[in-house]
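Action item from last meeting closed. Structure (177 res):
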């Protein structure tokens, strides 16, 4: 038997997946990785196609106009009316979504004005938070955020942007393909 260390967040996830007073952390990991019968299981990971399909769907169905990529950003797209900056977190069933947005990207979005949106996606679950940058900048100002990058940790179950204690449920979208 080997010993491993896990951080508090991973341990909390293991606790949520465990049957109380029955499963040990090893039993939870065994079920996740090997299945109930002990056969090796491959955990479902999103394909690159999932990201592309989700971004294309959002651009075509929620925003009008032909989008062009904003260089040097691979995931920033601009039309005459809108600019969208996608950030992808690709994990199935995770309680916390995590993103980091550099200040330069925020500056570009803010400079564009009303049609600027930060699109925080989880392609593995076909969902996204589509948030106007003006609302984000307002929260950054309100909380005195002055770091070089914007940390985004979302309690996905409650749609809570943890750093700002902000309920972003109104910006949440699920997609059916």
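Sequence:
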């Amino acid at each position: 038997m080997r010993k491993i260390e896990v951080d508090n967040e991973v341990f909390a996830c293991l606790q949520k997946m465990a049957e109380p007073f029955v499963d040990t952390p090893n039993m939870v990991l065994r079920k996740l990785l090997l299945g109930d019968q002990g056969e090796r299981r491959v955990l479902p990971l999103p394909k690159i196609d999932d990201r592309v399909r989700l971004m294309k769907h959002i651009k075509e169905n929620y925003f009008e106009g032909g989008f062009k990529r904003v260089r040097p950003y691979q995931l920033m797209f601009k039309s005459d009316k809108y600019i969208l900056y996608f950030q992808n977190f690709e994990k199935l069933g995770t309680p916390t979504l995590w993103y980091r947005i550099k200040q330069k990207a925020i500056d570009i979005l803010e400079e564009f004005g009303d049609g600027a949106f930060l699109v925080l996606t989880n392609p593995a679950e076909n969902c996204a938070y589509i948030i106007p940058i003006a609302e984000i900048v307002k929260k950054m100002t309100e909380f005195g955020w002055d770091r070089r990058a914007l940390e985004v940790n979302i309690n996905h179950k409650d749609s809570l942007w943890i750093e700002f204690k902000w309920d972003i449920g109104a910006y949440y979208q699920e997609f059916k393909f």
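Note appended to the action item: The longest helix spans residues 48-62.
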